[in-house]
Each structure stands twice: as C-alpha cells, then as structure tokens.
Design a protein that fits this description.
Elements: H1 7-14, E1 22-25, H2 31-42, E2 46-51, H3 54-66, E3 70-75, H4 81-95, E4 100-103, H5 118-146, E5 150-155, H6 168-188, E6 193-200, E7 203-204, H7 214-221, E8 228-229, H8 230-240, E9 252-255, H9 259-262
Parallel strand pairs: 1-2, 1-4, 2-3, 4-5, 5-6, 6-9, 7-8
Helix pairs in contact: 1-2, 2-8, 4-5, 5-6
Length: 267
C-alpha cells in the first residue's frame, strides 16, 4: 500500500492552478509517472493515467481517488498507435477535453552495443520514441480541434546528455526526444501548444530501490549528496505544463543534483 501524505489534501485546497485542465499521463502505475499524476490532481486537474500493468494502474487510480483526485485509469500499451488514440478519446469522453500530455512511459534495456539484439532495440524504439511521438501527435490534434492551447511533455534522461555504459539504445532515444521537442516548436507554437522535456538523473523509485546499493552509490557520486526523489522530478514537470510556463517551449530541464556537470560513473 502507498504511503498517504496529507499535505496533498492541504495543497489541493490552496492551489488549484490546474483547475479545468485535463492530462494524459503514461507509465503512471508507480514511480515518477504516478507522482506526476498525483500532483496534477492535487492541483485541480483531471487525469487519465495509463500503465501496461493492469494491477499497478488500478491501485494507482484508487490511491489518487482516495486522496480526492479526479482520475480515470486505462491499462494498455503506450507504444500502440490505436491505443494512444483510445487514451485521448477516452479522456475527452470522461472529462470533456485534453490539454496536457505527459509521455512518461519508457523502457530501459541494458546491453553491450556489439551484441545488442534487434528485438531489444525495437522494443526501446517503439515505446520511448513511437509512443511519445504519437501521444504528442494525437493530443495536438485534439487540442487544435478544441482550441485554447495546451502542453506536451516528454520524459528524457541524463543518458541523452552523457554516455552511460550499456545504454546506447536507451540514451539515443532520450536524446531524440529532446530534438523532437525542439522540432515541434516550429509546428505547434501557432496553436499555443508548448513542448518541453525533463531529463531525470538517478531517481529513487520502486524499481531502482530493488537494488540495495542504488541509493548509496548515487548519493556518493551526486554533487547534491543524494539521488532525486519522484517529487523532485514531478515538480519540474508540473512547472513546464503549468500556466507559469506558457512562454517556455522547446526546452529541457535536467533534474540530477548536478551529476551531469561532473558525470562520475556509478561503476
């Protein structure tokens, strides 16, 4: 069971900056995606959350709803183009519109470049790039149809900035997402749609904490003395899709406690 944090209920009473906004957040069953969705609903947004894991997304939706958030869950493959359209259509059916898309779903498959299999490359490309590309496209089409502008946020990574052992394929996709955000400035700005990226570094999630040494290793090599929390990353995401950043587009925020400035290897 997730830990309940009563500060979210207090926050929701005093800060409704996302009131009237509707977001689609992929990969939101746990970790960064869940925290993004949780914070969005606490600030007044209605959110459709997605994850490929049916049980995780069910629990995530129940948790957000129990905390007073307006949330609808949809399990499925965020790399599948037809399912992406279904997510956007369902958000419109449930909440009347879509104004924010956060392409958080991604897959990390480690492997040596010289023996990296085609199947692994295709999996990484399909979810990280195809899924993100078409979520942005389908959301933009809906935002243009309904008017009023909106925001798209891609989840990048420090591995898109600094080479990391056995992550050539993953890092390639994350660098590509930052270029995609810049490219979409040309096509979407006239519709008042902003497109930005956030690049997390080492972050404490359910998955990374399975490695008993993860926190200690990254605390040692991160200038700020600790890895990021999911809230650290979500805070930056919420800023970039908020009313305060309507004149920020095509940009990237690195959330890594200074690691990319010095880049010591965890190995």
């Amino acid at each position: 069971m997730r830990n309940k944090n009563t500060s979210y209920n207090i926050f929701s009473m005093i800060n409704q900056k996302f009131s009237g906004q509707v977001a689609v957040v992929t990969g939101a069953g746990q970790g960064i995606g869940f925290e993004i969705a949780r914070q969005l609903t606490a600030a007044g947004a209605a959110v459709l959350i997605n994850d490929v894991n049916k049980e995780l997304i069910k629990i995530a939706a129940e948790t957000i709803t129990a905390e007073g958030g307006l949330c609808y869950s949809l399990a499925g493959d965020a790399a599948d183009i037809d399912f992406i359209q279904q997510m956007v259509d369902t958000a419109v059916e449930q909440f009347g519109k879509v104004t924010i898309a956060i392409a958080n779903a991604g897959i990390t498959l480690f492997g040596d470049f010289l023996s990296y299999p085609q199947a692994s490359l295709q999996s990484v490309m399909n979810l990280n790039l195809q899924g993100s590309f078409f979520l942005a496209q389908k959301t933009a089409q809906q935002v243009i149809k309904q008017g009023g502008g909106g925001s798209v946020l891609f989840m990048s990574s420090v591995t898109g900035h600094q080479a990391h052992e056995q992550l050539a394929a993953y890092g390639m996709t994350k660098a590509a997402l930052e270029m995609l955000a810049k490219s979409l400035v040309i096509e979407l700005s006239k519709y008042q749609i902003t497109v930005n990226t956030v690049a997390p570094g080492a972050t404490l999630t359910e998955r990374t904490l399975e490695d008993g040494e993860y926190k200690n290793t990254w605390s040692r090599i991160t200038p700020m003395g600790r890895p990021a929390t999911v809230a650290d990353v979500a805070n930056s995401v919420l800023f970039l899709v908020s009313p305060e950043s309507r004149h920020i587009t095509g940009q990237n925020i690195v959330v890594d406690g200074g690691w990319t400035a010095v880049s010591p290897s965890p190995y």
